[in-house]
Amino acid sequence: MTHRELSASDFEKATPAENFGPAPMMDWIPIKLLVIDETYQRSITAKGKHNIVKIIENFCWSKFSAVLVAPIEGGLYSVIDGQHRATAVLACGIEKVPCQIIQADRREQADAFAAVNNVRTNMQPITLYNARVTSGDPKALRVADVCARAGVEIPRSVQSSLLLKPNQFQSPSTTERLIEQYGEEVIITTLKALVEVAPENVSLLSVTNFKALSAVLWANKAWRDAGGALFDVLDDVDFDGIADKARELRKMTPGTSIASNATVLLEKKMKQLFEQLEAA
Which domain holds residue 70? Predict the structure, then answer.
């Protein structure tokens, strides 16, 4: 068997962080002392429960990594990473788990949670977004502020369409990108319009509609500032029909996107409706 030493020679140009924070400790902690902070932690999903069952059925300490925790008041420990693993151990009847203990307040815990889970493909963007909000991340707080001003809510976790409220939007990452691209006022007007035009239509606040309308309003300031006339025009727009046509165009014209096609179609329709409104 051949072994090699660790080498950092490929990373000599990288600049280490200025502050590494307090060094962590390792200890075996009773599971009864572990708690979940729901301000940034996700609940256990159906997929998560399936994974826990797999851990239980194949449990072995050689496959178990330490749970990342931070001490909090009352002699308890907040689980930052390892909720599923700790739950599986509890189900196995084991009373203690090995833990890596870091010194961190709630904001730092949420930041650590987001950093640890950001590289995991199974982590929902909404979960990471809410953790970033709790940690005080400026971009996430900007998204939260824009959504609040628009009367839109990003839920704590992913919801099925049956449970989703008309003013709830499940794509904070899209919102963040569009704020950077078009600015806060365009996005606030867009979100308000999509919510208020058809208050009971949950499907209206979709990523495709959001991208298309924000692009159109950014390019047409007069429409954006039209007040009630904008809502009158949008009330006559068949957003579902535009989305269907955009999907058809994508099949016919490779290289285009549904959102870009929807933008062209929406702008054309809104131009027609505004002209009709002005002529009336």
Answer: 22-104
Residue 98: which CATH number? 3.90.1530.10
Domain annotation covers residue 3: no
pLDDT at residue 119, rounded to an integer: 59
Q: How many domains is the chain partitioned into structurally?
A: 2
Q: How far apart are CA 162 and CA 233, in angstroms?
A: 28
151 occurs within a structural domain? no
pLDDT digits (tens, 9 = 90+) for 49-106: 999 999 999 999 998 999 999 999 999 999 999 999 999 999 999 999 999 999 999 9
With 0.90 as the threshold, say if the pTM is over it: no
Give the model's pLDDT for residue 156: 82
Same structural domain for residues 183 and 246? yes
Length of the chain equals 280
